[in-house]
Specification:
With about 150 residues, this protein is of the alpha+beta class. About 40% of the residues lie in helices and about 20% in strands. The chain contains five helices and five strands; from the N terminus they run ααβββββααα.
Length: about 150
Amino acid sequence: MNAPPERGDAPTSRRDSSPAARTITAALSPTAKRPSPVRHAEDLAALLADLHGIVADVHEFASGNAIVSVHYGLLAYTDGEGFWWTSPELNHAGAPILSSALTLTEAAAQLAEHHAILSAREATDVVRGGLPLLGDVIGAEHVDPR
């Protein structure tokens, strides 16, 4: 007869390796160290694909930080701790809004909403909207200021 699992026994199913499971495990572990920015970005891209059907790509900067390209004009930056990006919506004064999230699930949910907003717009409106573009960001990151 199977005994019930003891408290503290971790499940060993395949889902334990999902980004969400790693986030929960890391948050609950007192000895867990911060993931690398690239790993954190890859986990976000995987979560966007798994939960929202959004294909995103990850790029590493020379600084070691990373960026997740979610949509044309929607770039999420990470230093391995949290994520931040420019929202496609403007505040009451017409200025861009800087959005952020500390968890993968929160970032994925907000980015999925922003992805839907941008997907509903005409491409020319997105281009003219002043949002950061991947080529500009990567170019600026690799320019040597000397």
